[in-house]
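Quick one: co-fold with adenosine-5'-triphosphate.
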Amino acid sequence: MKAELLKRLREANDYVSGQQLCEHLGVSRTAVWKMIHQLKGEGYEIEAVKNRGYRIREIPDVMTAEEITSRLKTTWMGRPCLYLERVDSTNNYAKKIAEEEASEGTLIIAKEQTAGRGRRGRSWTTPEDVNIMMTLLLRPKIRPEHASRLTLLMAMAVVRGIRKVTGLEAYIKWPNDVVVNGRKVCGILTEMNTEIDYINYVVIGAGINVNQQEFPKEIQDTAGSLCLVLGRRISRAELTAAVMEALEGLYEVFLRTQDLSELYQEYNTMCINCGHQVRVQEPENEYIGTAEGINEYGELIITREDGVQTLIYAGEVSVRGLYGYV
Ligand code: ATP
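Sure, here it is.
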């Protein structure tokens, strides 16, 4: 209800009378007044003028379920949206509620994450209330060995979202990072629960550095944020909604084709490694080659220095630029 009120006020861009709001939402004037009061408490600047109604003046970077929902243009992805004040990891929480029958498309957002994780037991560190920490729950009817393709879809959705909301040239560092100006602004972690040939659920977590101003020493040479590049703060809710919108479209194409045959060309235009020399780091092995791009199965094609082509699959592999992170 509050989401609908926000949407109406934002889209009107002018005063909306109390009467119109009551009719639109099907509630009393007192109920409208109470919601306006709550929104002001959350940081929204809403003017109330006699005989004219309400007008939203400042749309701050509020990150609540209502703010996100009011911006969603999806039919099912990101719905419902659950907002948590504090959690160990949004992926852990999503896995827990997936066991309790939460529906496909549920989105978990946290204000503070105390034990965010990356791949291979690495950690994802982020201060509270400036960045996006989100996890999406899916129940795809695909084979378990194809689930890591979903990481690639999320990376594409984040790139599309960043480009749309900020105009910045974001790129993917295969398979699971998004970079802007050569710095990592997003990490993605996909986890799943499966039977032998059946997926019970997949959770896709994405941490996006949006309005962070400084980074801890350990990552200050590789990490960056959108705000630092753009020079202004960005609405996290707007970006979250844009990512969900992009992902809904990509996911539907993926389910129809069961592979990336209709998406890999776009992925390759977004992939910063394409056409560049990379250092491939496998758990037991490291070598240098040229990244040619991904194929329709999401595998990265590497031409080794001796001319032999190898396909590498997400999972345990990292790629690095020869002289640094990308
Ligand atoms: P890499 O990105 O190094 O190739 P990876 O894809 O396996 O490896 P992830 O699992 O995506 O890495 O993320 C974990 C790593 O990201 C950490 O080891 C740390 O170096 C870095 N990191 C942690 N927090 C942040 C952050 N907020 N912004 C950017 N980088 C971060």
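If it helps, The chain has nine helices and 14 strands.
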